[in-house]
Amino acid sequence: MAEFMTEAKQHSTGTQSADGQEAAAILERTRASVDPELRAAIDSLPGSMRRIALYHFGWEHADGTPAAGNAGKAIRPALVLTAAAALGGPGALDAAVRAAAAVELVHNFTLLHDDVMDRDTTRRHRPTAWTVFGDADAILAGDALQALALGLLAEDPHPASGPAAARLAACVVELCAGQHADTEMERRGPGEVTLDEVLTMAEAKTGALIGCACALGALYAGASAEDVEALDAFGREAGLAFQLIDDVIGIWGDPRRTGKPVGADLAARKKSLPVVAALTSGTPAAAELAELYAVPYEKGDEDEIARTALAVERAGGRDWAQVQAADRMARAMQDLARAVPDPAEAGGLLALAEFVTRRSS
Fold first, then answer.
1. Is residue 60 within 8 Å of residue 67, measured between CB atoms?
2. Which sequence spans correspond to the domains of the chain?
3. Whole-number Å distance between alpha carbons of 129 and 120
4. Beta strands at 122-123 and 126-127: parallel, antiparallel or unpaired
5. Is the keyword Kinase in the record (predicted)?
């Protein structure tokens, strides 16, 4: 363990460009192997659902003409394939492509539904599906993607497909519970949500699928039950670190890179992790933030967004989130070391974890 942690630390403190290049190469290979499986699955949908799904993935414009859009980073399918390779070699990686596609379909099912519930109008630098096709059709397209995901695993002859399908189905239930908790918290007052509650919600809403992705890769590698659970734990901790950084970016990120308007989470009065940390800090800035959050945002008031972001920062929300993200990554490395004790074999998983938690915008 000590050797792993030393080498992992060296990996994380090496040049960010090298880490980013390794992760970028993994993500590019993942898209090349998984996208054909995704497209084949989506092409099997009825025309109305297919059109919305292709638009959501960025492969078509709203009028159905081809588009060279952004289908997302493919982090979750990359984790499936990289975990499979780390524990089972290249053969396991090739066998896990369907499982990787299934995880990506589930992820996009959640995005379609979340955008409707959160009333988000922009994703991947274009209007969200519900704003183009309406609430009902966006929800139905999301339902179809979830069905496709489980269908891919049901049709997969690999012996791990049954346990993988059961695990993914259980994960979907956890994702729904996490989203329910998120929406329920949004109905409460600014000081009525605790840090423990929001951390539990974030693990269910974000960490669960990232953990499941890693666990599915381990299953397709024929790993032991202990190693499967260790990789699930690794993914959950890395996923929580990812969410912490994502929430920081949601407040202070550059909209030219995030694809969302500046301060969108603050305008929506989202109780994100940094905001709840700030609200519960007991500082004068926390009281100021609570006052700001108690009043609906008036569209176009950029000064108010700036004041709200400053209040979160002065109340310690930004620093807390960044420290927590580093702590969760340290825990993730410990979990990874239990399943993949050789740092060289774990390098791909570490590169992906570093990639998603070292974004600055």
1. yes
2. 2-357
3. 10
4. antiparallel
5. no
The mean predicted confidence, pLDDT, of the chain is: 91
H/E element, 127: strand 126-127
Contact 230, 338 (CB under 8 A): yes
Contact assessment for residue 232 and residue 198, using Cβ atoms and an 8 Å cutoff: no
Point out which residues pair with 60 in neighbouring strands. 66
- Collapsing DSSP to helix, strand or coil, 79 comes out as helix
Token pair, residue 336, equals 């990874």
The set of residues, in sequence order, having a beta carbon less than 8 Å from that of 93 and lying 6+ positions away, is 81, 82, 84, 85
pLDDT value at position 17? 55
Q: Output the pLDDT for position 264.
A: 82
77: Cα separation from own chain's centroid: 11
Stretch 88-111: mean pLDDT: 97
Distance CA 246, CA 328 (A): 14
Measured CA to CA, the distance from residue 204 to residue 196 in angstroms comes to 12
CA distance 296 to 195: 23
Given the structure tokens 């950084």, which residue do they identify?
Answer: 245
The pair of three-digit structure tokens given for residue 294, joined into one six-digit string: 């108690």
Burial of 225: CB neighbours in 10 Å, binned 0-12, 13-18, 19+: exposed
Range with lowest mean pLDDT among 16-20, 108-112, 218-222, 353-357 = 16-20
Q: Two tokens at 305?
A: 């967004």
Looking from the CA of 243 toward its CB, the CA atoms found within 13 Å total 24
125: left (phi over 0), alpha (psi -120 to 50) or beta: left
Residue 262 gets the label, from left (phi > 0), alpha (psi -120 to 50) or beta, of beta
pLDDT at 20: 83
| Phi, psi of 157, rounded to the nearest 5 degrees | -75, -5
Question: Class of the 2-357 domain?
Answer: mainly alpha
Q: Tell me which residue of 349, 342, 35 sits closest to 218, measured CA to CA.
A: 349
Judged by DSSP in three states, 126 sits in strand
pLDDT 10s digits, 243-269: 999 999 989 988 777 666 778 889 989
Predicted confidence at residue 19, as pLDDT, reads 64
* Predicted pLDDT of residue 37: 96
Per-residue confidence at 183, pLDDT binned at 50, 70, 90?
A: very high
